[in-house]
Amino acid sequence: MLAVARALLRTDARVAATRERVGALDEIELFAPLTNVLRERIATQIHREEVGAGGVVTYQGEDGDSFYIVESGTLDVCVDGRHVRSLAAGDFFGELALLRDTTRSATVRATSDCRLWVLPRRAFLTVLTGFDPTGQTIDAASTERQANMPATANGRDAALASAPLLAALPAETIRDLAASATTEGYDTATVVFGENDPARDAYFIVDGRVDFDRAGERIRALGPGRIFGEVAVLRPGATRAATATAAPGTVLWRLPGEQLRAAVSQS
Predict the structure, then answer these.
(1) Would you say residue 71 has pLDDT above 70?
(2) Tens digit of each residue's pLDDT (9 = 90 or more) over 246-259
(3) Homologous superfamily of 154-266 in CATH?
């Protein structure tokens, strides 16, 4: 009997939670046209996420598996370190990567404490295909955003080509190097590499700041659009001359040393 009672309590709790989410969905303009049946189905899959001011929700270049609706708070959208728009209650984001099956086209960072509704990919596609008015709203917004997105959002090529080290390289070489790059994001201050570490890869700063210390003393700081770590990478057997620390919210592209050496050898 006790086990049955506990099971009933858990069921009641789930039902209550679903009803709460249905009520919340009623307040979101994007979901207003949904039928009650579809809204209840979405309510079983959506969840709320809280992000503190300064927290990063998505990083440009990472894989995307969720769609976000802003319940409260404000966020900034940045592409290659440049601010392109701001978001507030009722706005949504994250659809581009899901619709086009690509990586995230922008970094989204909270500028105040935020509450977000998060919809997994499968549930998002259910909304998109299950009810035309809502699907059309999302598709229209994503088409407009894609059209207004800076060109560098369509790939890493132009951003890398702007770096002095790579500016003279052929477009095809830049494209190959960009394809080999991987995105790394840091929510907290993180050491990228330490002084005297072996030099394997170089890095391009997409957003944020990287500080450099030698023997415990700050020697410089670099921001978006700069490459670092390349000097040691281009000298076989060299080690790191300083410790590099990424500030909170920094986004980097890791450039594999082997590919970078091959690219630069063509200049």
Answers:
(1) yes
(2) 998 888 999 999 99
(3) Jelly Rolls (2.60.120.10)
